[in-house]
Amino acid sequence: MAHDLSKIRNFSIIAHIDHGKSTLADRMLELTHTIEKRKMQDQVLDSMELERERGITIKMQPVRMTYPLAPSEASGALPLKGGDIPYTLNLIDTPGHIDFSYEVSRALKAVEGSILLVDATQGVQAQTLTTLEMAKASGLVIIPAVSKVDSPLARPEEVKLEIATVLGCDPSTVLEVSGKTGSGVDDLLRQVIERVPAPKTTHTGASDFDALVFDFEYSNHQGVIVYIRVLDGTVKKGDALLFAVANEKFQALSVGTFSPTKTERDSLSAGEIGYIVTGIKQPGIASVGDTITLFKNPLPALPGYQNPRPVVWASVYPESADNFPDLKHALARLRLSDSAFSYEEETSGALGRGFRCGFLGMLHLEIITERLRREHNLDLVVTQPSITYQVKLKNGKEVTVYSPHLFPADGEIAEVLEPWVRLHLMTPNQYLGGLSLLCHEHEGEVVDMENFGGDRTKLEVLMPLRELMRNFFDELKSATSGYASVAYDFAEMRVADVTRLDILLADEVVPAFTRVIARRRALEEAETAVEKLHEIMPRQMFEMKIQGFALGRILSSKTIKAFMKDVTQHMYGGDITRKMKLREKQKDGKKKMASRGKGKVNIPHEVFLKMMKK
Predict the structure, then answer these.
(1) For the domain that residue 183 is a member of, what is the CATH number?
(2) Fewest beta carbons within 10 Å, which of 37, 371, 438, 523?
(3) What pLDDT, in 10s, does the model give residues 508-532?
């Protein structure tokens, strides 16, 4: 088949979590006969078990469809004329969660248009607006559509008005579709063909080739497989290629497209979306946003590349020290397929050997740890997540603190800087009061508020990332009965009023329980931590104090009584003074164990596990 750029359309779907994006993609695959009906299953493009279970897209997935229509036939369902070439439609199904926003931004660079999909029962949500801004910044053509119109709770006319307000378009141009029944999907594909422009090339030389890497995966046998959008030229099996940013040479072992499974082809040309098998088996070389070009005639890297920077840190330890090599191997495997994830080895006196890991956000942390448990069958201890602080010391030095137990003491600090985020919240008006109070409790500053679609309000709030991680998402669901939606991006570094909270057991600091907290909450946090540890810590052979230390003093204290053995149980008579002597001797022994450090506190593993949980 001849390569005709005018017959190619590259597009993505922008949607909030659970707005029917993957279900709509299923209907498109059915309509274009990309997958046989007998092989069809729900959420075909969500290949991971975790994606299906949670109903979210974690890993973006491209797919190539063939649609037999010519432009003149867009208004009627006429068959193709004999000589007409069908359209090639390349869809990239992208994640909707904010943690993966960089991946989404690079995927949007690989397409010319995007379908804005909004749930007819819920309306425009915060995350939709955030991704939409990225699409607009990339200069994409936006095709608006309302999904789930078959639902008895659907209010399509109201939602169309909301979309029209956001895009500044006529409500009549917003399409209606149902991923469940398939209605309107055919018309939507025709609109993609009519309105999304065909790809264009920038270099005209016969030996020019460059492609954008928008995702990759790892195979045990084939190494790293990069997902690419070819911008110029042609690539074929055996070509010597180069990662422009990583400056790493490799050979294309094979090339192909997604239908939706990998289908090997002779070559990939400008405008097409496909994959290259690199054979690379070292972590850290392939990364989203890099450019692939010919080794003999390299072109400059495409602009906009970023190294994803971790924003949330947590330590991961195996429950059994014997599983440390298995954890190390599992992390290396995950790093091969996720360049945004980083880790380094560390040792804790209480937990043994483990790894300090960096994540893009709380969902990213949850997914990585869940994959370690499921795919590698590991039992893990995951410490409470923390963020990065920039600390200026009184001696003039500046340090970056990733771990709470390394946070300097109050007397050494001149100034602390912490990251702040910009929250975009959408809530029904009836929950506005409770939401404002919640933002205030989490040190949030409401900088903008506007009415959106009659019964809803859009808020813009600035908040410390530290407070966002302090159970904000769960409290938001409770305060708004689950009706509010939230998206966030990173705003700036600001001066932080924080301190280190240490938990002491028998006058010894336990690093695993150390946290960085707001000064204003120091007393409350100390009392809560001490109370919780007092409940779950088993008694020892000597009396033991649990203390919360912050702001240079003990803020909370509780005592666990010692085990008392009846040392007189073998005595069946005699003078009472004999029993008194034995009891005094026992009391003195316990005092010595507690005061001279002879007694060693034994902290069971399950205590660490319970303290790490909320």
Answers:
(1) 3.40.50.300
(2) 37
(3) 888 878 889 899 889 999 999 899 8
